[in-house]
Amino acid sequence: MILDCNSSTLSKIKEESIINQLKDKLQKDKSEENVIAEILRKLNDSELLITFKYLEALGYSDGENYVKQVYAKRRKSANCGSSFADETFHKVDATAMDILPPYSFIIEFDFTLEKPYISKDDENFTIIENSVKREKILGCPYIPGSTWKGCLRSALWHEGMKEDDEQITRIFGNERLTNESFRQGRLHFFPSFFDRVDYEIVNPHDRKTRTGTVPILIESIPSGSNSKFSLLYVPFDLAGKEKEESAKQMLEDLKVIAKGIEAMFTVYGFGAKTSSGYGIAKINDGFISINAKDNKVKIEPELPKSFSLNEAKTNLRSTLKNHLNSSPERGFIEKRFDTLMSFKESVGKAIEVLI
Predict the structure, then answer these.
(1) Is the distance from CB of 131 to CB of 213 less than 8 angstroms?
(2) pTM, entire model
């Protein structure tokens, strides 16, 4: 939550005596629930948070629960507005593959959650203790690229790959213990955004009475939610290597990555509580695009005898654009798919073309 504790926010709570109203109602019987809820609904999210923390400090647990209920209902019915984030992070230029090193590839597809997704936000100053991770600027729930990287790596370990395996190191990189041993990975993961949240409820039971009286809300992304998964593979460390060796390593890595993606989405899950079945999803339509160029074209723009720096830049951009537009073939292989089975088949066909 973005906290906006400006003077008008605090003045509104003080002038309208909201805290005093709540304290009076909380000291009465449960029949005042609707009145308390009506008072709280007048507050925005920042004001609710301030009120919650104040009641928490005073020890009004009933008041805290009322604030949680109002806040949870508001969040559950709200549209988190992830469309802007999706457009920003998942806009792939048609010429993107042309400027990447040979044997780079992009895998991108839509997916639908079949089980809720749970994560933990970095923000501790919240009303819901178990909040899902949110993008700090836009405020919409999301899965960061670092989470995707960790989950894919974990899925491959479950599939028998070892942490110190040479192939795992070149795909994911390793920890920077020393500059000499550090190796950057070839994969770059893009975040995935969602536009709504829901709540899972855990109600711990008393050992003696075997009943639960304090349900715990866990914010989640509900099943049926849609988002997009994207990763980019760039074998920058193969520059200057033989074409056969580069192609061989890329094909080996593609097979492993595709196997890991399938296992992560359909078997092991991603996020928190995966051992309880959370974080399972269905792969929908998408594409695999592989840069299969064998060589680079040297571009030498014709410059006038006397020119300014701006003229040189303009001429270079124009020459580049004309070259890309006039190229008879882009030099990359693209396979589209619309289901998990098609995803596996598309990877297989792409590999067949390159072998």
Answers:
(1) no
(2) 0.74
